[in-house]
Specification:
Distance between the termini of chain A: 35 Å
Number of helices of chain A: 11
Strand order of the largest sheet of chain A: 6-5-4-9-12-14-15
Largest sheet of chain A: 7 strands, parallel
CATH class of the largest domain in chain A: Alpha Beta
Number of strands of chain A: 15
Strand content of chain A: 15-25%
CATH topology of the largest domain in chain A: Rossmann fold
Structural class of chain A: alpha/beta
Radius of gyration of chain A: 19 Å
Order of helices and strands of chain A: HEHHEEHHHEHEHEEEHEEEHEEEHE
Oligomer: homodimer
Helix content of chain A: 40-55%
Chain lengths: ~250, ~250
DNA sequence: GTTCGTCGTGTCTGTTCATGCCCGATTGAA
DNA sequence: TTCAATCGGGCATGAACAGACACGACGAAC
């Protein structure tokens, strides 16, 4: 096992467990504690974990993102299935906008290495993930970066989306329903999502079934703006049928 | 079997298996390890795999960049000292532009948690690192993302810098000298740097002494544009004095 | 057909890298 | 305050690496 592989795995363990310690890692990987310390130092220098006595803590967990990690773990299965289904929607060649969000991030992580695409995103984690993908021409949408979601918002982002036209948009929402449309808690983010929706020829909404019926503060569109909804089997067939009557195709992964 | 065929096959094996190692490839293809190393080097240069000790890993499999901090492990010490010295230049309150580059990234990593700043950057790694800093209001400059440097360039970036005015800019250069000014290998990046220089009231150049006297393809400014040069003690006192006569303060960390 | 340059490959040699071990310094919990 | 766990730097070692050079195949120009 190569050192970078081990570091990658350590990072994953840290993110999963919220913390790792030197000795168990040493045992786990069958190397000495010194080597683990070096790995943690490297990860620390890369800004991915924060070194503490006896181990390390992933940075995202550090101060005030318990919910990002938590959200990551809840409904993980559903999100994975949704992400997998969304892969089928990638254009083989063309332009795609990726919204911020953990489910969309999973799709991004799963884009095959042979793919050849132009991707536009305002999400920092997704951009970081795709930056070294050899087949992807990545365009970053700038703006003020919100701490919680690590996505760019405000004037620069709105203007950028106003200037482009993409084949497909993968968008996330915190709540969706026929009555209340697509909603999210933050007004600035809703504005960016709305701009992204307007910039795409085909809108694909990724949302697990728990989001159905929820409504949040800021509305950024109607369900009728969505061409395809990819969700999980937690959405009842009746609800799905009702949505399809509104003109939105539904995939229950 | 021709070299490009072999490389294509190596790439396929790497993507299928997630990793390859030099010795098995050498056996597999009935060539020496040196030849495999050359193949891997070529694939690495093409940005298709990441070289590791003993083998290679296809890009995208690792979602972190182990070497962005370590890539130029040469002069690591100097860079650390320069970064430390640069911390003193942070405004206590105000706006700062951070250019892309490993040295600048180290400064970003070292910004104290209690700092309260507005930061603007077009560097993806730096943005990722600062995104969850509680005291920093982060503004991301968008644009096409260059694979090699993970920095945004082109129209969006140029326009964004044209619209702002910051207190301090920390800028990096691949070469600097009184005669040839500030240079970097890439034209698009030079344009962004030039725009950033124009957007800042005070320009601080971070460059280790090995960069002195070097000149690269694209020039983005003169040494006289720089208010403060932070370098290491490898720059001779005479050179430093000469630069200071040009109106640029010099710190040899 | 000969000659020359180029390219891919192999060989050699000194250098770098990853890791393990050791020891004094530091830390944090009782 | 004390003491055991942990850390970090230095050093050793074997594997892996990089650069220089040589050899042979191939193709172009004469």
């Amino acid at each position: 096992m190569y050192a970078p592989e081990r570091q990658q795995e350590i990072l994953r363990l840290a993110r999963d467990g919220g913390r790792v310690d030197v000795l168990s890692l040493a045992e786990e990987f069958q190397v000495t504690a010194e080597t683990i310390r070096r790995d943690l130092k490297a990860l620390d220098r890369a800004g991915l974990v924060r070194r503490v006595h006896g181990g390390a803590i992933p940075v995202g967990r550090l101060d005030f993102e318990p919910d990002l990690a938590e959200r990551e773990s809840t409904a993980a299965d559903e999100k994975d299935r949704i992400a997998k289904a969304a892969l089928a929607e990638l254009p083989t060649e063309g332009t795609m906008i990726l919204d911020a969000g953990t489910t969309v991030a999973r799709v991004a992580a799963a884009i095959p290495l042979e793919a050849s695409l132009t991707v536009v995103t305002h999400s920092l984690p997704i951009a970081a993930r795709l930056a070294d993908h050899p087949g992807i021409q990545l365009h970053l949408v700038g703006g003020r970066v919100r701490h919680r979601t690590r996505a760019a918002v405000d004037a620069w982002a709105l203007r950028a989306y106003g200037e482009i036209r993409a084949d497909v948009l993968l968008v996330a929402a915190n709540g969706f329903s026929a009555e209340h449309g697509l909603t999210t808690p933050d007004l600035a983010e809703a504005a960016v999502k709305r701009a992204a929706v307007a910039a795409a020829r085909r809108v694909v909404l990724l949302a697990d079934s728990a989001k159905h019926g929820q409504e949040h503060f800021a509305r950024f569109g109607d369900l009728s703006d969505v061409d395809l909804l990819i969700t999980d089997s937690g959405l009842s067939p009746e609800d799905a049928a009702a949505i399809e009557r509104g003109g939105t195709e539904v995939v229950r992964a």
